[in-house]
User: Fold these one by one.
Assistant:
Number 1:
Amino acid sequence: MTIPAVVSATDLSLTFHTSDGPVTALSDVTLDIKKGEFVSFIGPSGCGKTTFLRAIADLERPTSGSIEVNGQTPGNARKDRAYGYVFQAAALYPWRTIEKNVALPLEIMGYSKALKAERIARTLALVNLEGFEKKYPWQLSGGMQQRASIARALAFDADLLLMDEPFGALDEIVRDHLNSELLKLWKETQKTICFVTHSIPEAVYLSTKIVVMSPRPGRVTDIIESSLPAERPLDIRETPEFLAIAARVREGLRAGHSYEE
Ligand SMILES: Nc1ncnc2c1ncn2[C@@H]1O[C@H](COP(=O)(O)OP(=O)(O)OP(=O)(O)O)[C@@H](O)[C@H]1O
């Protein structure tokens, strides 16, 4: 049985027209993301990682080539609520409680009170935030706020989760903890995850597939299928298999680096 592609990009190019001239954010990207994969995008600043996620989410239009989400245009997939989006900063509304923040997309979609309550309870349980429903974002730590924003992205129960460097601003211990929680959540929910990061260990620890990118123009320089087992305790990061994949990612990053800045 072939596993269906959730995201399929073919020769995707995307150029921004700025007052300083054209900026090619993505050049000829061809990539398939299958259902249930955990795919990390890694590369230096400006290599088009966010732009690729935004193209999936129908927030940017390709200049040439094509991209399909669940076999349809990103616009139609967006209407079908095909994905949840987690941003770099938690981006919670400070005047809303945690449960009201998670409820926001459901309110916009006109969910019934009962269905809203059920979804809020379920997603907050998934990210271990039961008991914090009535708190305001400022009453939570940075890691908890980011978990709340993951809960908000999960509220629709979309099969695809787009995560743009969600843990970049957190200290390493909190990040480690959230990495293993995210893996657990991914296994429990069997979602497809696209995850942007600057961290080699984070990419290797989390992913089934690592997409290495390089800037000017943004392109894919390597796609690594991970050979690590599904079960990943944090100390897997010291194993030879893990270090070998990390070395290959580093090599890909070096090869695409121009050092001219
Ligand atoms: N709306 C826009 N208008 C003009 N240029 C843009 C726009 N959005 C992105 N760019 C440019 O496109 C390139 C790719 O940007 P993008 O944000 O996708 O990179 P990134 O790899 O996600 O970077 P970072 O790691 O810093 O988030 C950059 O050169 C950026 O300046």
Number 2:
Amino acid sequence: MNSAARLQATLDLLTDVERTARPVDAVTSSFFRSRRFIDEQDRGAMLELLYALLRHQARLGWWLARLGHADSPRAQLLAWLILGQGRSPSNVARQFDGAKFAPAPLSDAERALLAGLRNHTIEHPEMPDAVRLECPDWAMAPLRQRFGGAFAKEMAATLTPPPLDLRVNPIRASRAEVLKGLHKLGLEAEATALSPNGIRLPERLSLARLPGLKTGEIEIQDEGSQLVALLVDAQPGERVVDFCAGAGGKTLALAAQMNNRGHLVACDVNESRLKRCAERLRKAGLHNAETRLLASETDKWVKRRKGGFDRVLVDAPCSGTGTWRRNPDARWRAPELGLEALIALQSRILASAARLVKPGGRLVYATCSLLPEENEAQVAAFLAANPAFRVVPLAEAAPNLTGLTPAEYLSLTPARHDTDGFFAAVLQRADQAPESA
Ligand SMILES: C[S@@+](CC[C@H](N)C(=O)[O-])C[C@H]1O[C@@H](n2cnc3c(N)ncnc32)[C@H](O)[C@@H]1O
């Protein structure tokens, strides 16, 4: 592909991304599946450009509005070539020449746009904070409150390309073996700083270069997500529930921690995600887990299995604000249910899942949210309503996890930990229910 054809192909991809409500990685996978002729190098270049556009969407939109130009994927691309790549209008015009596979020639309005953007950069002193920081309006106040003076730094960190983290499946291989294999392939892989099972690759790469994914030796999992699973501290032989298992990211980590012994139940209300979870368990050689589809968080199964589990993980549906660095498009999709309804759902899920915990057992509440309403406040409300539970501080919950600042809760952010944003609280049910409970 020549560079003009790459621009047009990226424009087609961006148009697909903006047309659907599906997450960007799902859209890119189906885009490339139906265009197998695009080689690895072109794919890499296109994804880099696509993600740069998505990370600058509010600022590009601001410039287009300022110059009175309608916002569209093509206009965003044109603006980025000038503001982000520092090209000149004539350089851009040369590639938008209507040749085969190249973008259509520039209209007069587009030529005027390029002239208006000339000699500017992406930032402008008149940009409001929400635009400069690429923060949706609904999240400005809660995130500002959460981070105080570090708000701008945290938002800037969500706009940097994330590393690619892998979790080694200890049932299939050791971290040292996998690292050696990756180095042999010429990849700059290194052990993660906090997770004992993690490997970090500094950049996005074609997953076809990671054969261990097919054999179940490795899984793609952010280091923060690995730490949440480790905090559950599930032991071989125990009975464990992953209440919001989804497609099984943490289920797989828990089943492996249990060394294929004991019993793990992966629940969810979403059947297709659970199917994917079951497939991944099989591929990873993990057979101590079953999946269970729930009708709702108060499914009869929960009542029947009351007090039956040593560990229960609630990886609750949340605003996903902690994943903005990895999914730059996610920030522009407000929580489907609305934040208030989401918080109410989390509280119902937590209350119901807590019933599964046996005396002396532990409940781990986690989100990939940066918002206190979904995290600390949610836990405080739960504790007020459930005096049989107490907080287990990090050092006690996972004494082997060195490197974490001692605190009550796990609270990871892209700026401070170079992971996705994650929150987790470990709560223990008293050995005997108090008289009053
Ligand atoms: C954050 S995702 C889980 C991600 C998963 N644990 C992982 O590590 O890959 C939250 C999950 O909660 C599920 N969920 C939503 N409402 C639920 C409910 N009422 N009861 C149980 N699970 C629910 C969603 O279907 C979704 O899969």
